[in-house]
Amino acid sequence: GENVEQHPSTLSVQEGDSAVIKCTYSDSASNYFPWYKQELGKRPQLIIDIRSNVGEKKDQRIAVTLNKTAKHFSLHITETQPEDSAVYFCAASNTNAGKSTFGDGTTLTVKP
Amino acid sequence: EAEVAQSPRYKITEKSQAVAFWCDPISGHATLYWYRQILGQGPELLVQFQDESVVDDSQLPKDRFSAERLKGVDSTLKIQPAELGDSAMYLCASSSDRGSDEQYFGPGTRLTVT
User: Fold this and answer.
1) Which of A43, A53, A87, A104 to mutate to test the interface with B (most CBs of B within 10 A)?
2) Which residues pair with B109 in a beta bridge?
3) Bridge partners, B88 (sequence order)
4) pLDDT 10s digit of each residue in chain B, 114 long?
């Protein structure tokens, strides 16, 4: 089955700096890669996603890149703000099989 | 905005007791997922429904866990008997399509087994 590894497990940055979280996956059949943000005590919410036919996607301060050959994808947050502090999860999905596998999460702390 | 509903939000039970969780997905969403999230880890899929049919329950401990979605709408996850290691957050999610669309998560049920 699919195996997703996410790094780092914790990340602390100064407000205004950039943050990068990386995930690797094992199943070449995975073709959909969402990122979720989970604030303390709240439900995970999708912040950005990318499909395997695209190499990069950007939404304001958030971007995701995908390298299918190397089987890794990354979340980039620029100009970080304290409200970006949360746990971020990546996932790899095989839409043909309808199966998603999540990484173990990265706790991002943005210091004011 | 429509949301996935779950109840109860918190449940404390003694080991060997039975416990049940309920989930109501977003109206019209055919796919429903039950995940278990242990503190410090990502959600782990327990069971996935497409309408009323189970499409994946390979990670569901079937000796003690059961799930149903009889009318293809709301769903119940049951644990009997509960064990100490079952303490976790149980998340329900739904999507309009099978694995190819955004999953909308419910608030979760925090289970503590004593």
Assistant:
1) A43
2) B90
3) B111
4) 789 999 999 999 999 999 999 999 999 999 999 999 998 888 999 999 999 999 889 899 999 999 999 888 999 999 999 999 999 999 999 998 665 578 899 999 999 999
